[in-house]
Task: structure prediction
Amino acid sequence: MSLADLDWRVIGEETRPGPMTMALEAAAAETVAAGGPATVRVYTWPDTLSLGYGQDPDTIDWAFCEREDVGVTRRPTGGGAIYHDSVADISYGIIAPADAVPGDLMECYEQFCEPVLDAFERMGVDASFADDERSAVHQPACYLRQLHPAHDIVGPDGRKLSGNAQYRQKNAVIQHGSLSVSLRPDRHCGCFTADPDSERFTERVGAIDEYTDIDRAEAVETLRSTLAEWVDASAGSWTDDELARAREHAKEKYDADEWIRRLP
Result:
């Protein structure tokens, strides 16, 4: 079996609370593991901080997040926390059966990042995988961690444009990632107790609107259409059953303090 053999659906841009955003991935993994369609999706978070799986909650400025109305959840993937801005960020997800993708993690990243790199090219951005492992600026912040050539995508000046991560669940592979459309460094850095320097953030992180003249809506549609063409996906939507299961996952896990604030 290969990706081309699968029945794919594409779910266009939507915005849901952070816990539901992650819970829908879990529901989609259950769907594809049971023989249902594979999924590519594009989505926007409401202003949300997503903690990495092993994140220490003491690195987060909870008062800042509450004061600035930044929601908080925890991802099933590793890495540091990421501030997802409702305007400055676009995210995507790919959910496929595990037996349709390479067993080697690096090969799987290369395959799943192909449409992301193609989307950057269509937007007019010369993007590529990072070619070296640049040292960390602030370890708790994902975009300021050490750059990794396997899954970090950078612009022509070497600044990080996109972070990508994978996990496996219920015989499915899930990859999700974020693309920076623009930057709000003060808001991103304010989510952390150490208050990393905003100027150093902009030295490490780039954004689409710094490299090309494209508005956010066009960038979103470019990413959606590129993902859809990559696997010849038909327009789709969540089923009532998936939404119900996702609400349960959100309640029991992604919106629960025991999950969000747990110690690594």
